Amino acid sequence: MTYMIHDKGLSTMIDWKNRDIFGKEIPAKLRGQIYRLRKWQSRIRVSDATERNLIFALSELDRMASNLDLQKNLRECAAKIYRDAVEAHLIRGRSIEGVAAASLYAACRMFKVPRTLSEIAEVARVDKKEISRSFRFISNELVLNLNPTKPIDFLTRFISELDLTTKCQKTAKGIIRMAERRGLTSGRGPTGVCAAAIYASSILTNERRTQRSIARVSCVTEVTVRNRFSELVENLNLGISLKRNQK
Known about the structure:
By secondary structure, the protein is an all-alpha fold. Helices cover 60% and strands 0% of the residues. The longest helix is centred in the first third of the chain and has 19 residues. It starts with 27 loop residues before the first helix and ends in a 12-residue tail after the last helix.
């Protein structure tokens, strides 16, 4: 059984290949009859608007997950969340694409796969605000109890995409831990804090990357990187001159 198919893959399918169970060609005089059976089966399997909407939503989920290269079990989880939302009548008044994208984001959170709302929005057919609203709504109504994401959740992926060393990653991790102890991560976006920690670490380990390149990878603005970096330098004893390292 799979949640990624609207009927969960439990129905019998008439194959579109013109061969029988033994692999032999179906006689020409029977092909017309089988063709008509296939058409009727297709109509029966998608019998109403709810079924058609579910097929569309699941295809959108699969498309977005493919673009983000997400694993099969995460896709199944996202499809299950979307189905639960449908059964709880949470789709009414909301776009199918928005709820589908929100379900995928929720599944990423459940599997601790670091994907931001901005990244989901890039592959979705709706904007970030709509996904965020739908996510908050379904997570509350379905009581998903998702733990908030932390800066350290994004560290490994960002370091890899920036082609930085294990030494830089270890240093950035230490900076994030210090920032958490000092309360510098509270009320701030986790990706912005992570980006600033990586920028500081790249300076300390002589593997410097620009704020622009780090901002691009972390899906935040350069201003966010700069502001979070300033907070780290001003509140932690990192041995970095703020005036010399603002670009």
